[in-house]
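Have a close read of the entry that follows and walk me through the local backbone shapes. See right below:
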Amino acid sequence: MDVSADKTTQAGRRRRPDGELSRQRILDAATEIAAERGYEGTSIGAVSAKCGLPASSIYWHFKDKDDLIAAVIERSFGSWLAAWELPTDLTNPEEAFAEMAARIAKAFLDSPDFIRIGLMLALERRPLEPRGREMFVQVRDRVNQRLLGAVRQLAPGLTEADVHQLATYAIAGADGLMVAKEIGGDAVDLVAMFELHARAVYGLAQRMNAQDGT
């Protein structure tokens, strides 16, 4: 047995968990700073001071600030996307849609910085768009595809134009509710508001479906 090779392997195994832990510390710090200061106010120096790791460690994990912010958004992507899926039981489609909306609201409450940072980037315009904004737009596009599928299931008689219009309206309403939560804090029951929004969208879908069928 090659003892030196075994030691190298063991060292490599120790470094990987340490490296992942450092990466998560960096992402946690970047998330907090970006949520407070926005893209422009976030710097590698500020992240370094926040997480207690040298800038060289940050650059080892991320190419630059843009790469770091994109990773912050990507990290929260999985739980956020999973929430935009209709339950398998569609015996009561309105309740199923409301249940999906409640999951979306809870996903936001679990990771509000993801949306806060993403919306800030989405509203800012630069000659050269940062990768963080591109990542957020990609996330929203996949969310939109999930919502389009849900609308087609809930109102199968709608035209594709109506499906897209209704999905756009539903996402815009969700954006507004999340902004309202950020402004209103504990005074806004986000889960209840999302469920109300879902029922309103479902009722509108049924009315549009009936109109298309006449």
Q: What stands out?
A: The chain has two domains: 3-65, 76-213. Residues 1-16 have pLDDT under 50 and may be disordered. The domain at 3-65 is CATH 1.10.10.60 (Arc Repressor Mutant, subunit A).
